[in-house]
Specification:
Helix 5 packs parallel to helix 15, helix 9 packs parallel to helix 11 and helix 10 runs antiparallel to helix 11. Helix content is 63%, strand content 4%. The protein is built from 17 helices and six strands. The chain starts with a helix and ends in a 5-residue tail after the last strand. The strands form two sheets. Strands 4-1-5-6 form a four-stranded mixed sheet. It is globular. It is mainly alpha-helical.
């Protein structure tokens, strides 16, 4: 645990936040007492983002920790590190040596998908559903070893049903859990606990879909969640190559990559598949099927997002760990190189998160100061460093206030530098255009 926390230090040393989500929820959570918090209903299934467990926990964390970003981020990093330790435990019980299992957990926690999820408070739902999924597998492994077949099947079914329920109350992506349990049941040749767990998890998922299908298919104004089945192959390839796309912070920008870059990036997942195949064709096939299943709830969306690859990354690291002991020197060297590039990419994401948080810690108070000085005027912002435009576009999107100072629709980004009323300095300070620094 100490190594996991130390190597993710840039995330919990972050003095600020990444985007508008954290700022919006901080406003909602800014109440004198817990009783005044706008709790999210566990029964309003018509809400598109029906994530009551995630949102209520987010309210609590924001209420107590928003003013202490280091503690807020530390809580997320701790949760992500626990997920990594769960993965290590699952791998050890699956036959991996302790060092190999921990190395796989380390690569998972330090990779770009996890760096994004552990570093952005808005990915709380991903931390939860993947944690519930890994916890389910850990319980099943213990029940599978039990001699009490009937009781172990009952325990497995109850655990899987509850975990799937809590995971679905955290995020829709948890619909992948029963599918992955079914794949595990098939590979293990239908052990009773796994079979019971698959049925129980599947029943919970079916009930969830029966209640929510109309809303999920027609998301209304949530255009980023509208289904685009034709985009499925492109989304699949983007998730496959992203771990090795050095210098790429957000996965969706890969669609703008040249064909030559795509061909170069494709070598990495092909090398991974070759290593898995060399170890066992079953491992390679399991990886391809499992990767598709864990991504299935998001593959038809119009855009890829880093957080959706969190469970995908855990599965990939697990498959590589299982293959390690069956490979010779060449295969292990290849996996080590792939892991090293993944970790380097993850550290790049960590540093980008740290840089953004540092800017936000300066920008939001400075913007609020300018808004207070001009309580009725429109504030159109433009960064002196053009590359920072996306950062401030996120930090100003639909943020109603900062520490009680109204912001709202009158604050936003200008269309160009000439239309800006205020400029943002490279270190995040906001000043009226033409003012002397």
């Amino acid at each position: 645990m100490a190594a996991l926390l130390l190597l993710q230090a840039p995330l919990w040393l972050n003095p600020g936040y990444f985007t508008h989500d954290e700022l919006q929820w901080a406003v909602r959570a800014d109440t004198p007492s817990l009783g005044g918090l706008p709790w999210v209903s566990f029964f309003d299934v018509t809400w598109f983002q029906f994530r009551p467990l995630t949102f209520n926990l987010w309210l609590l964390l924001s209420h107590f920790l928003f003013e202490s970003p280091h503690l807020f981020h530390a809580a997320c990093v701790l949760a992500g590190s626990l997920n990594a330790l769960l993965l290590a435990g699952v791998l050890r019980r699956a036959g991996c040596r302790g060092q190999v299992a921990f190395a796989a957990a380390l690569v998972f926690a330090l990779g770009p998908f996890a760096a994004w999820v552990h570093g952005w408070v808005g990915c709380l739902g991903d931390l939860l559903w993947v944690g519930f999924g890994l916890g389910t597998v850990a319980v099943l492994q213990r029940q599978d070893a039990s001699r009490e077949r009937t009781s172990s099947a009952i325990v497995a079914a109850l655990a899987a049903a509850l975990a799937t329920l809590f995971a679905l109350l955290s995020k829709e992506a948890a619909l992948a859990i029963p599918a992955l349990l079914a794949l595990g049941t098939l590979l293990l040749r239908f052990p009773r606990p796994w079979l019971a767990a698959t049925f129980a998890s599947g029943i919970v998922a079916i009930i969830y879909l029966a209640l929510r299908m109309d809303t999920l298919i027609a998301p209304g104004d949530a255009t980023s969640y509208r289904l685009h089945p034709a985009a499925l192959p492109a989304r699949w390839f983007e998730y496959m190559v992203y771990p090795w796309a050095l210098g790429t912070e957000e996965i969706h920008v890969l669609r703008m990559a040249s064909w030559s870059k795509w061909l170069l990036l494709a070598l990495a997942p092909l090398a991974l598949i070759a290593c898995l195949w060399r170890a066992s064709w079953r491992l390679a096939l399991t990886w391809l099927i499992g990767a598709t299943l864990v991504l299935a709830p998001v593959l038809a969306l119009p855009n890829s997002f880093n957080q959706y690859g969190y469970g995908f990354a855990a599965l990939g690291c697990g498959m590589a760990a299982l293959a390690w002991q069956r490979l010779g020197r060449t295969g292990r060297s290849m996996l080590a190189v792939l892991a090293l590039v993944t970790v380097v990419h993850g550290f790049q994401v960590q540093m980008q998160m740290l840089e953004t948080g540092g800017l936000q810690a300066v920008f939001s108070p400075s913007l609020a100061e300018q808004a207070q000085a001009q309580p009725h005027d429109v504030i159109a912002l433009w960064p002196e460093r053009a590359s920072q435009f996306p950062i401030y576009a996120r930090l100003t999107h639909a943020v109603p206030a900062w520490h009680g100072i109204p912001l709202g629709a009158r604050v936003g980004m200008a269309e160009n530098a000439e239309q800006a009323t205020h400029l943002i300095t490279p270190d995040g300070h906001v000043q009226p255009r033409g003012a002397t620094p």
